[in-house]
Amino acid sequence: MNASLVVTVGRRPEGFAFLTPAPDWIELRADLNADLDADLNADLDRDLDAAHLRSLTPATLLYTLRGVIDDRRERLLRAASTFDLIDLECADLDDTLLLQRIRPERRVITWRGRARTMDDLDTALRAVQRVPARLYRLEVEAPRCSETLLPMALLKREQRHDLTAYALGAAGLWTRILAPRLGACIVFGGDDDPVDGMLSMEQLISDYGFPRLEPADEISGIVGDPILGSLSPSLHNAGFRALGRRALYLPFHAPDFADFWSALIGERGLESLGVSVGALCVVSPHKEIAVSAASARTPMVSRTCSTNFFVNEGGVWTADTTDPEGVLLTLRERRVEPRGQRVAVVGCGGSGRVIAAALQQAGADVTLVNRGFDRASLAIRLLQLPFVPLASFSPRGYDIVVNATPVGYRSGDVPFDPSDLGDDAVVIDLVYGQEPTALVTATRARGQITIDGRDVLRTQAMSQFHLMTGERMPAEVPGRILGWYAGDDERVVAAGGAA
């Protein structure tokens, strides 16, 4: 079964004539571009009629004008002569002329607002469905994770082909992905500059397999703030598809972990939608607070008070961590043995503590480095390791240096001066992005062994996939998504499969 793809944009439709795959609908948001109506009407004055406008793209054209605007009625009426579908709001439903000019099969009726309870959402549904339409759309403002469940529960209950609902904003990302499986088979994505916290059409296709709606009996996902730039959904969903597994990996943007955990997991909110939840990857800033939510924890998690992976086994959630594999297995791939090496771990957050503990267990002589002492004091107390303030730290004399801070993620900054590194020093930078960080670029230019965030992510993703499924992630998946190919290094395949 396929979902209809809808790309929501604030510009003219000509540029979407050659999208691949082509969207089924193009929603033009006139409220996002004040010149859109003027441009279209100017072209119409030059004999560019509706038929020719539609010939620019095979997609169905939906005109949307959000909010209270002085000439709203006139703009909607003008659009009705050109567009296939017109978006109406509740305030438009008492306008007899609008309803006469825009027949039911051309109406998309949208309600947008806050719904704290199911009664609120039922009231909204009654408000839109009093007038016949092709599609009813409920957009729920949900600043809390617990409120994102409401539109999904409504779809599960109603099971209607003419109704879609989802939560707005980053917290609602997961609802946009799941909604087509619970109601109308339609998904709304953005262009290269998406609005309302929606995913881009490219992400919907590459990360989540749209327009195909593969069956999904089990859910896993990544929980953090932010998570929009994570490559984990792309990796794991590609792995599921390659193995034909009925599973879906979702992004859970959670500013408040306790709210997320209570509503979606503790009270079985996700399970109420007809899916089981098998595992969760927990990322910043929740690696510490999440530990207390689990029923059990591994020795490494207990020692470091940090987790990055929850596994559900028979209803018992265990807090685990794959941070050690991300570093130790990646070092092993490059034939670097940490035993007896002097190691500096820069950053005393959750990942830094776990990596420092794992390297110490592997026989390394580990020193902690951090900018502030408050967080460092926790790491010193838990790990009983020596500490050096970042302000007085020099990497000279260390065999392995790990950057476990976010420095370098959004800028050309470096956490320390790479020119002070010894010639044979190995550098591990946990940060990854579209391009190598300044630290990685500098150390590679020096010809040093450098492990960047994508190397670590690949190893961790393979390990987590094995924990989730009991199966090995197909080697071509990280190769295609991360630009790494297993055929280049058979030792990497062996390391990933042993996780």
Report on the structure:
This protein is 35% helix and 21% strand. The protein has 18 helices and 20 strands. It is an alpha/beta fold. It folds into three domains: 4-213, Aldolase class I (TIM Barrel, Alpha-Beta Barrel), CATH 3.20.20; 220-321, Rossmann fold, CATH 3.40.50; 331-456, Rossmann fold, CATH 3.40.50. The radius of gyration is 26 Å and the shape is elongated. Residues 44-50 and 485-499 have low confidence and may be disordered. Helix 4 (96-101) links the parallel strand 4 (85-89) and strand 5 (107-114).
Topology diagram in text:
Blueprint: E1 4-9, E2 25-29, H1 36-45, H2 50-55, E3 60-64, H3 72-80, E4 85-89, H4 96-101, E5 107-114, H5 118-129, E6 135-141, H6 145-158, E7 163-167, H7 173-178, E8 186-190, H8 201-208, E9 218-224, H9 232-243, E10 247-253, H10 257-266, E11 276-282, E12 296-297, H11 299-304, E13 309-313, E14 316-320, H12 323-333, E15 342-346, H13 350-361, E16 365-370, H14 373-383, E17 387-389, E18 400-403, E19 426-429, H15 438-445, E20 450-451, H16 453-469, H17 476-482, H18 490-497
Parallel strand pairs: 1-2, 1-8, 2-3, 3-4, 4-5, 5-6, 6-7, 9-10, 9-11, 12-14, 15-16, 15-18, 16-17, 18-19, 19-20
Antiparallel strand pairs: 11-13, 13-14
Helix pairs in contact: 8-9, 12-13, 12-16, 12-18, 16-18
